[in-house]
Amino acid sequence: MKGTANPQYPIMIVDDEEQILLAIDTTLRMAGMTNTITCQDSTKVMNYFSEHKVEIVLLDLTMPRMDGEELLSIINLQYPEVPVIVVTGAVDIETAVRCMKSGAFDYVVKPIEEDRLLAAVRRGVTFRELERENLALKRRIFSDTLEHPEVFSNIVTNNKVVLSVFKYVESIADSTAPVLITGETGTGKELVARAVHASSRMSGEFVAVNVAGLDDHVFSDTLFGHVKGAFTGADDIRRGLVEQAAGGTLMLDEIGDLSQASQLKLLRFLQEGEYFPLGRDEPKRSNVRIVAVTNENPQLLKKTGRFREDLFYRLHTHHIEIPPLRERMQDIPLLADYFLEEAARALNKKKPSLPAELWPLLGTYSFPGNVRELRSMVVDAVSTHKSGTLSLSIFRSHIAREQRGQIESAQEPQRQTDCIIWPLNLPTKEDTIKMLEAEALKRAKGNQSIAASMLGISQQALSKRLKQNKQDS
């Protein structure tokens, strides 16, 4: 299954010394990179390349029959996309530099330092992942179809920006790197997070946790678990969410509210792929994919010091921004109909028909609560519905209440900036009323009933005035 091999294709280790092969292979496997293959005969490397895909190559330079420099040239010529990390003795640094100029990705000096080796290999793996994702993204951009549209069936939209998000999600499906999902409250960030998991076809579970308000101890216990006797009350072993989501996706909601101490632990986990359950001295490894979610501006969090810059960039490997509902107003009829059917089914009622006046009414509203707010409005309306066409009263009262609340909560200077800016020559009273009526009709997209409600008069009164204005002109 996808998500089990790490990395996706094998790391090939080429060295004529068996002990070196074993040492490097063990080091990589201990670090969680278990998809490896060793080769002691350099002349057999290209035969393997012709039948299999390779993630990266660790290549010894000093070998019999075919030395590393010659093999590097052949790999670089025939498979330029595969990073080659040369392994050289301390006296051969000049040779290593020459290899770098010939296309080597990096070099490691013998005797091999584990940290240096792992850092070079991780960079190579990340390079390959990003390269594949860029190619996949290009294919999605130039294609109007999704490979797995069923993954996004719970997200109702016809908006081009959201559809481009779907294509991006498919393009990063094979990546194990973290994903940062941002957007206002109620835009559907968790639905997108679940789509990220589903598109990856990872074998593990999708596990979500809200980290807002968790102190460092609770955060560590929740994510990493504890051993028996780790602290007072720890009478049994606790599996953390990282272990529960092994081979799958762990969504960290409200990541912007994470404490600094917890941010540091999360950073280490993302960098090393290992963690310490409370009370345990030996680290445990995990291949879980982290999806971080926030409704705050991550750049502002970083700028104000509330969020570690190094963690921000680690989480920001893949970034998905969900647009607010006010920027995808064409989705309102689709969403309203979807929620209408959902609510009618849940309340065991016949699905009511929608009044034509509903769309221009909703089109005048900014939806600060986004899709979640629209759903609440529809459910509330269906709950009180008896028969026939759905009443507009619930929608009108909700919008009026929210707009009134926004005005009341606004600061005095803000209220002053909302005042009408009068021209030097004041219009007459009658001209002012006509301009007000014209603006209301513009905002209501020509619907007289909605425009009248904005002006605080009846629809009949507005219609009478408009007819009189037409006769006068």
Structure description:
- The chain is of the alpha/beta class and 473 residues long.
- Helix content is 48%, strand content 12%.
- The chain is built from 20 helices and 14 strands.
- A 5-stranded parallel β-sheet has the order 2-1-3-4-5, sandwiched between helices. Strands 7-10-13-6-14 form a 5-stranded parallel β-sheet. Strands 8-9 form a two-stranded antiparallel sheet.
- Strand 11 and strand 12 form a beta hairpin.
- About 2% of the residues have low confidence.
Class from secondary-structure proportions: alpha/beta
Counting structural domains, the number is 4
- The name of the CATH architecture of the largest domain is 3-Layer(aba) Sandwich
State the name of the first-level CATH class of the largest domain: Alpha Beta
What is the name of the CATH superfamily of the largest domain?
Answer: P-loop containing nucleotide triphosphate hydrolases
Number of helices: 20
Rg computed from alpha carbons, rounded to a whole number of angstroms: 30 Å
From the N-terminal CA to the C-terminal CA, the straight-line distance is 74 Å
Low-confidence stretches: 410-417
The largest sheet, given as strand count, sense and whether it forms a barrel, is: 5 strands, parallel
Helix content: 40-55%
The count of strands amounts to: 14
